């Protein structure tokens, strides 16, 4: 689960679907070392691995806060933080035909940005999933709105950091 706008929209829809069907909501945050697995294997450092896993847990918690104001009451929720690429991780967790996999689809990026990234998760999963997949589109924003949201988040993070420092 991503904490992008598309990921938050998918989380909201997942909460609705879990309530509607009475299913357990399994929120998954897949993560990988920032420099990639190949480089990490050359110079492994367990303390960094713990740090990245903790950050992934915190991002999952923040996603619930941003999407629903916290974990929804009256809903069975299982949180999973798994190391690995998002597509294969999600397909392995939602492996039963009775499962419903809800994923977010970000709006298209610039051609240069697309060259630097792997196949998008919203294309990887439907081709390989063994269960029903619901793809939720992220909101359409004007370029100025996206910049304002990113700037607001950055200022909010700076504000939290400033309050922590005596």
Describe the structure.
The protein is 54% helix and 16% strand. It is α/β, with parallel strands linked by helices and 166 residues long. The chain has one domain (5-140): 3-Layer(aba) Sandwich (Rossmann fold), CATH 3.40.50. The strands form 2 sheets. It has a two-stranded parallel sheet. Strands 3-4 form a two-stranded parallel sheet. Helix 1 packs across helix 3 (46-68) and helix 4 (86-93) packs parallel to helix 6. Residues 160-166 have low confidence and may be disordered. Residues 4-136 form the UspA domain. InterPro entries: Rossmann-like_a/b/a_fold, UspA. This is UspA domain-containing protein. It comes from Streptomyces fodineus. It holds the Pfam family Usp.
Write the SSE topology.
Blueprint: H1 5-21, E1 25-31, H2 37-42, H3 46-68, E2 77-83, H4 86-93, E3 100-105, H5 111-116, H6 121-128, E4 132-137, H7 143-164
Parallel strand pairs: 1-2, 3-4
Helix pairs in contact: 1-3, 4-6
Organism: Streptomyces fodineus
Protein name: UspA domain-containing protein
Domain UspA: 4-136
